[in-house]
Amino acid sequence: MTIIDDVRARLVDGDAAALEAFWGGLRTPVIEPVDGSTDEMRATFFWRDATADAVVITINRITESLDDGRMERIPGTDVWFRSFLLGADWRGSYTVLPLDAQGLSDIGEREPRWAMRVVREQGRLDPRNPVAIRTHGGRASVAEMPGAMPLPRPDRPAAVGGATSEHRLEHGRRVWVHRPAGDDGRAPRPVVIMLDGEVWQDSGDAANAIDALAEFEGLRTPYLVMVDAEGPRRMTDLSIDGGMSEEIVAQILPWVHDLLPISTDPADVIVSGESLGGLTALKTAFDHPGVVGSAIAQSSSLWQHDMLERTASAAPVRLFLTAGSHEDRLVGENRALVAQLAGSAHEHRYIEYNGGHDMAWWRGLWAEGVRHLLQR
């Protein structure tokens, strides 16, 4: 018997006490084994709403249309639910959006991909799931299966934290600089230039992760420079023919050198990014290996450029790469890049995870990437 079978049986008579008892002890999603399978599990998501005409859940790269995400209501109750069969090592973010009839009609007129984007960005956190994150599209809840790869939880601040300051560069770019705990401004440190820095600054995930990583023996804790890429310029700046790589090398890094005692070893200069930011991180390392010798590139948007020519012609750099198995064309393009790297002088590590284009994975894997590239 599944959780839905049990709930239907318990609430069949519209018993108000049984309904309150059900909601009172519920933690979502409910994870159950699937008979005869060790590879999949059933995740059932619940939402409480007595007035909505429809409730839609959007799960990163699992629900691709309104039909995929429409929840079902148990008649005579305020219980909405939807079950999904997911890999036993899956992790992903989600939001839930209750709608009236007009709202459902308005969203339904959109192209399916854009409809689900509206649901994701306007959707609410799951109040019965305490794990929530800041994503590139706003706040979202996180679900994971028992076999998901363990990752650091950067939303848990270290006991002793460093200090973050906001700056405006001469050319107008906003950046945030995080100095790790114990920094005296004397000894040279590595530096991580982080694209989409407004997301990481708002969440605190990167700063918390760096302060926690200070506990690893042999790790040279870096400075963080989180670069604002928000707004309409993002697509232009971070596209393959955008100017962000040159801006990092010609303007941002010289400014950082004047502000902080950063290492002069190119291997200690890391550019990191996700999606278009990952593409730009790779481009910067391949085009400027004498300045930027390392990159963390997650779910890189290689649909714009496969990077194979740059891989073949660039001087050796060090790379930490990730992609999700639910990222369709994108994961195939990342696999092709990794295959070419295997026959090159570039040092690389690649992690493919069971998930989507998702900060639920990126934030923990970013911390692992920093640890990998900077631990000696």
Can you characterise this structure?
With 376 residues, the protein is an alpha/beta fold. It has 13 helices and 16 strands. It has helices at 3-10, 16-24, 66-69, 101-108, 112-122, 197-203, 205-213, 233-238, 244-259, 276-287, 308-313, 329-342, 359-374; strands spanning 30-33, 40-48, 54-59, 72-73, 79-87, 91-99, 132-135, 138-144, 163-168, 174-179, 191-194, 223-227, 269-274, 294-298, 318-324, 347-353. Helix 7 runs parallel beside helix 13 and helix 9 packs across helix 10 (276-287). The longest helix has 16 residues, at 244-259. It is elongated and about 70 Å long.
- Identify low-pLDDT runs: none
Structure class: alpha/beta
Span between termini: 52 Å
Global Rg: 23 Å
Name the quaternary structure: single chain
- Strand element count: 16
- Give the SSE order as H and E letters: HHEEEHEEEHHEEEEEHHEHHEHEHEHEH
Chain-averaged pLDDT: 94
Strand order of the largest sheet: 9-10-12-11-13-14-15-16
Shape: elongated
Largest sheet: 8 strands, mixed
Strand content: 25-35%
How many separate helices? 13
What level of helicity do the residues show? 25-40%
What's the arrangement of secondary structure elements?
Layout: H1 3-10, H2 16-24, E1 30-33, E2 40-48, E3 54-59, H3 66-69, E4 72-73, E5 79-87, E6 91-99, H4 101-108, H5 112-122, E7 132-135, E8 138-144, E9 163-168, E10 174-179, E11 191-194, H6 197-203, H7 205-213, E12 223-227, H8 233-238, H9 244-259, E13 269-274, H10 276-287, E14 294-298, H11 308-313, E15 318-324, H12 329-342, E16 347-353, H13 359-374
Parallel strand pairs: 11-12, 11-13, 13-14, 14-15, 15-16
Antiparallel strand pairs: 1-2, 2-5, 3-6, 4-5, 6-8, 7-8, 9-10, 10-12
Helix pairs in contact: 7-13, 9-10
